[in-house]
Write a structure and sequence with these properties.
single chain; 184 residues; mainly alpha; Fumarate Reductase Cytochrome B subunit; 4 strands
């Protein structure tokens, strides 16, 4: 059901792809803000907030993999024939970078958590860390996780700015590909 043509004829993503996109974006934003503010929480909440941050990171990883699987089965709608080749290249590279970082950031974050001697609490069950707290391992992992997280946010902001540029400057309706059709 991908590639539905909207009211102005532009082909759009299907509802599942849209839901996965917006849910992933929201979780990334919350996880990033939580990561930035973790030290601002009272001591009695800090452990729960670290766990929430880790669970959100796992959700991003799962959603990124689900998006890749969905996209393989339901490819992205074609860009208009008038879309410039350089724009296609930037879009392809930007999306590849976003997917890569949506996978890499959690894959660095989970071992970082475990090497800090922290486990994961899923509510119904817990996974204890198999490692003792090892600063010489978790500190460089923490730095890599932070750098990759900032890179993901920078790419995401670039993605948003590109969408807004297309909507407001070029007026080519590219943004509408990822928005539900308007009710008539």
């Amino acid at each position: 059901m991908a590639n539905h043509a909207g009211p102005i004829g532009i082909k759009r993503y299907d509802a599942v792809a849209m839901a996965l996109h917006w849910l992933t974006a929201a979780i990334i934003a919350v996880a990033f803000v939580l990561g930035l503010t973790i030290d601002d929480f009272p001591k009695e909440l800090k452990s729960a907030m670290i766990n929430a941050h880790a669970l959100l990171g796992l959700a991003v990883l799962v959603l990124a993999l689900a998006r890749l699987l969905w996209r393989r089965a339901y490819p992205a709608p074609d860009l208009p024939a008038t879309y410039p080749q350089l724009g296609r290249t930037f879009a392809r590279l930007g999306h590849a970078g976003l997917y890569l970082l949506m996978i890499v950031v959690p894959l660095i974050g989970i071992p970082t958590l475990l090497w800090r001697g922290r486990g994961l609490d899923f509510g119904l069950f817990q996974i204890a860390s198999p490692f003792a707290r090892t600063p010489e391992i978790y500190r460089p992992l923490t730095e890599a996780h932070e750098i990759a997280s900032y890179a993901l946010i920078v790419l995401a902001i670039g993605h948003v700015l590109a969408a807004l540029y297309h909507q407001t400057i070029r007026k080519d309706d590219i943004l509408s590909r990822m928005l539900p059709p308007r009710a008539r």
